[in-house]
Amino acid sequence: xxxxxxxxxxxxxxxxxxxxxxxxxxxxxxxxxxxxxxxxxxxxxxxxxxxxxxxxxxxxxxxxxxxxxxxxx
Length: 73
Prior knowledge:
globular
């Protein structure tokens, strides 16, 4: 049975940051692909270092999935 991808409403209830695998699930890509994008500095979502790993800022994930413009960074 395929996994059900989270809806935008589901994601809005997530904590302020989420793991790369959880963000990848929401984006519909593999976690290894998102890890590579983060490592290359080409991530579509904002990430922050957290110890030896990175976490994705949920508000930025929501912005991307809602089709909102990131604006001036």
